[in-house]
Write a structure and sequence with these properties.
The chain is built from 2 helices and 6 strands. The protein is α+β, with helices and mostly antiparallel strands and 97 residues long.
């Protein structure tokens, strides 16, 4: 089975989303499935730590240029270390730099 999941369990509280997502991904992996999960929830990035090497994190990098968010679309291993939402909020005056 191939799974492609975007913003898994969005709309649930963060604790339930993490618990439910981990259970779902673990079940898929135990049954030999492969797939991708996209999320903005950094707590879900801890799930691979519980799967004994059966999962890994990847990300795209971005930058804010002339008020626009630009992605390079190069897949990099690991969890993203930048916070584009804060940069966007600063760019429209919601937050002070």
């Amino acid at each position: 089975m191939l799974f492609l999941l975007d913003e898994l369990l969005s709309g649930t509280n963060s604790h339930d989303r993490l618990q439910g997502s981990e259970l779902l991904v673990r079940t898929f992996v135990e049954h030999g499935a492969i797939g991708l999960i996209t999320t903005h929830d950094l707590a879900l990035a801890r799930i691979p730590e519980t799967l004994n090497g059966a999962a890994r994190n990847f990300h795209f990098e971005d930058r804010l240029e002339d008020g626009k968010l630009l992605f390079d679309f190069k897949l990099r291993e690991g969890v993203v270390e930048t916070s584009n939402a804060i940069l966007l909020m600063q760019s429209i005056g919601l937050l002070k730099p």
